[in-house]
Specification:
Strand content: over 45%
Structural class: mainly beta
Strand order of the largest sheet: 1-2-3-10-5-8
CATH architecture: Sandwich
Number of helices: 0
Order of helices and strands: EEEEEEEEEEE
Number of strands: 11
CATH class: Mainly Beta
Mean pLDDT: 88
Helix content: under 10%
CATH topology: Jelly Rolls
CATH superfamily: Jelly Rolls
Oligomer: single chain
Number of domains: 1
Low-confidence stretches: none
Distance between the termini: 41 Å
């Protein structure tokens, strides 16, 4: 059975890590999860990595800097970036509000924060 989540129904929760997020959906076996992240101006997601999860980012609106290991990628609306397991990464927004889709595979919580 398909899962439908309408835009009007989205509620963002403030993460304990300092950003806003809403889960758009996940499959029943937790193989994949789609999360919308909302970063206000000067918000960031601290440096972290995942031991088994691959995380894919698609910028819906705005611009965001994603540091992966020692490389910094400046993404704008329409850009897509894949971060593989064990790659240390952080997201930062120094512009107006940004919205990013994060596709997580597998959808298990294995985040290890460094800072």
């Amino acid at each position: 059975m398909p899962i439908l989540k309408r835009y009007i129904d989205r509620e963002y929760e403030k993460s304990t890590k300092g950003y806003h997020r809403t889960v758009l959906g996940r499959d029943k076996d937790n193989k994949v999860e789609v999360v919308e992240l909302k970063l206000e101006k000067n918000e960031k997601i601290r440096l972290h990595y995942h031991t088994t999860m691959t995380e894919m980012f698609y910028v819906v609106e705005g611009r965001v800097k994603i540091k992966v290991d020692n490389n910094i990628y400046e993404l704008v609306s329409g850009d897509f970036l894949i971060v593989f397991p064990n790659e240390k990464h952080e997201l930062a927004n120094d512009d107006k509000e940004s919205r990013i889709l994060a596709i997580k595979y597998p959808a298990i919580e294995d985040t290890i924060f460094i800072e």
